[in-house]
Amino acid sequence: MSSDLGSATDPDVVLVGGGIMSATLASLLGVVAPEWTVTLFESAADVAGESSDAWNNAGTGHAALCELNYTPQGPDGRVDTAKARTINEQFQVSRQFWSHLVRTGLTGSPKEFISPVPHVGFVTGEQGRAYMCARHAALSAEPLFAGLEYTDSADELAGWAPLVMDGRDPQQVVAATRAVSGTDVNFGALTRLLLAQGEERGVQVHTGQRVTDLDRLDDGRWKVTVTDRRTGEERCVRTRFVFVGAGGGALPLLQKAAIPEIRGFGGFPVSGLFLRTRSPELVTRHQAKVYGQAAVGAPPMSVPHLDLRLVDGEYSLLFGPYAGFSPKFLKAGSVFDLPLSVKADNLGSMLGVARTELALTRYLVTELLQSRSARHRTLTEFVPQAEQADWDMVTAGQRVQVIKRDPRSGRGVLQFGTELIVGSDGSIAGLLGASPGASTAVSAMLSLVERAFPDRVAAARPALEDAIPSYGRDLSSDPALLAAVRADTMQVLELNG
C-alpha cells in the first residue's frame, strides 16, 4: 500500500474507500476482468478503519440464524422466512468466494478472519416462546436452516448460554434456538487480506488520499479529484468506471457526481455504543452469540445481543447496542456531514422521515440520556449477574441509514438496509446503508458487476461458477448442491473445529 499518489495513472477502474465492499469488488474484478487496471483511494492512513474495522461492526457473519428481526411474525402468527432465506443465501455466496480465494492463494490462515461460533436467538415470556416455537418450525423446514435446535428448557439453555441464565428468575418463561454452524467474522482482517492479494495482482492501493470530487467528462469517463491528506496536493485521474464504497462518505460523493439515480436519497447517521469485557472467566463461559428481541416500538438497530468476538487472536464479549448520535457520516468525518447532505432534491424525503419516524427520535433521545448505571441495568436484563466493573464502553462505527423517496406515496422513508446505486450507463456505482452489509458483500458486488458489466459477466461465467459453485442457482431449492457447498466451505475455511 502506498501513501504516494505519484504512481497513480489513469486506470480502468477507481475504487473509492478501502473497506470490505471495495476489497470484494477488486477481488471479483480479478475473476471477471483480470486484465483491467484498478486503483483504490482510501482517505485514512490505513484500509478497513471505518465500518469494516472489527470493533466498528457486529462481526456476526449475518446468516439470519439468530437475528430475530429477519423473521417477522404476522397477525396470523405465521413467521415469514423470506428475508432470512435471502440473507442466508447471500452469506453462503460470500463463504464460497472466500473459499475460492483461500484456495488460490489468499495470504494467511482463514482463522485470521473467520471462526466457528454458535448463534442463539433468545426470548422471554409466553408471547416470546410462542413466537420462537413458530420461528423454529418455519425455519427448520428450510434446507438452509436444517439442524436449527429449539429449547424452552431453562436447564438446557443454561448449557447454551450460561451468562444469560445465571441468576435469572427460575419462574421466567424462556425459549431459544441455536445454530452450531454460526460464525464470527473479522471483516477488517478480511479486507486487509483481500487487498494484499489484490496488490499482488497489480491493484494500486493508495492510503491517505481523499477523493473530493467526481466530474463526468465529455468522452464518458470520470475525472476523479484526489487530495493528499498529508501535503494537501491535489491531483486528478480519469477512469471508465468508479465505485464509491466509502461507507457514510458515499452519499456526498454520489451527490457531487450528480447522477439522476441519487436524487431523493438522504442519510441519517446513528452511532453505536457497546459494553465490552475481556474478563477471561466471562469469555470462557460464554462461547456463543446470543441475540434477543428489540423492545416494542424500538427500531431494528436496537436488537440487544451478547456477542462473542475474536479480534487479533483475543476473545472478548460485546453487549449492546446503545445508540449514540453524531452528525458525522464517518467516525473520522465532519460535524457538517449531515447538514451539507441536505439538498433541494432530497429535502422532502428528509423532512418526511422527520415527521414519520417519531419513535426513532424518542428512542435516540432516551438512549442519549442514559447514565452508565442505566446502561448497566439494561445489561443485567440480559446478563443478570453482570458486574459493572467488568465492562467498559466502546464506540462502534457510524451507520448512515438510507432515506429514500417512496415511489408510491412520494414521501421519504427510512430504510434499515443497504441500497446499491448504479448509474444508467454502468459507469458509476455506490453503496448506501448498513446491515447486513459486510456479510453480503459478495452478493452485493456481484449484483453491481452484473448490472455494470453484463458482457463481461457472460464471458466470465465459467470462471464465476468455478469461484462460486452456486452462482446463478438457488441453494434452498437444491439440497445436494447445498450439502456439497457447505462441506467444502467448512473444510476450506477450517470451520469444523
UniProtKB/TrEMBL annotation:
Entry protein name: Probable malate:quinone oxidoreductase
SUPFAM superfamilies, per the entry: FAD/NAD(P)-binding domain
Annotated Pfam families: Mqo
Cofactors that this protein relies on: FAD
Gene Ontology molecular function terms on file: (S)-2-hydroxyglutarate dehydrogenase activity; L-malate dehydrogenase (quinone) activity
Record key words, sorted: FAD, Flavoprotein, Oxidoreductase, Tricarboxylic acid cycle
Pathway(s) this gene product operates in, as recorded in its UniProt entry: Carbohydrate metabolism; tricarboxylic acid cycle; oxaloacetate from (S)-malate (quinone route): step 1/1
NCBIfam families per UniProt: mal_quin_oxido (TIGR01320), PRK05257.2-1 (NF003606), PRK05257.3-2 (NF003611), PRK13339.1 (NF009875)
The EC number(s) this enzyme carries: 1.1.5.4
GO biological process: tricarboxylic acid cycle
Family: Belongs to the MQO family.
Known catalytic reactions: (S)-malate + a quinone = a quinol + oxaloacetate
Organism of origin: Geodermatophilus obscurus
Leading EC class: oxidoreductase
Coiled coil (UniProt feature): none
